[in-house]
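Q: Two folds, back to back.
A: First:
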Amino acid sequence: MATSFAQKLTAARLMAAGLKSHADDVKKVGFDEAKIAEIEKLSLEAQELDNEQESLKAKLKSCTEKLNKTTEALDVALNDAKKTVKFAISQSEWKAFGISDKK
């Protein structure tokens, strides 16, 4: 079973706290304070990056909504322009406007 990001952060914090409280015992087998500090540093950095990612996701969602609205407005404007060209310009000249319709 895959662990969620929140579970991973909780596990890292618990591990760091446990290692700190048993620092003398784990130091005997080569797990020193620098390694404990590395776990704390990485978990903090991961949390900060997750926060930044969530912020960027929200910004992307907002930007996507704006893009969709702008694209819809562009479609309406182009359809209006196409109708105008078809009405005002002879069919032989439609290609100059990018219109390949027959009628």
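A: Second:
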Amino acid sequence: MRKELSIGLLTFALTLTVKQFIDIPELIMGGLLGFSIVFELLGALPEKTYLKVKKFKGSLFRQK
């Protein structure tokens, strides 16, 4: 299991658990749930596609 998938699942579980006990604004809840879904999708990608995304991300922030 990739670390992105683990982070996404952990964030999702913690967000839903905290929602049961503490009243958190919807904007924050939506942001955390969106964050967790993105990480879950990245972690669930096939290896070839995952490497393409990682290479593209690296090219965006590369110093020239």
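Q: And?
A: The helical segments are 3-21, 26-44, 47-60.
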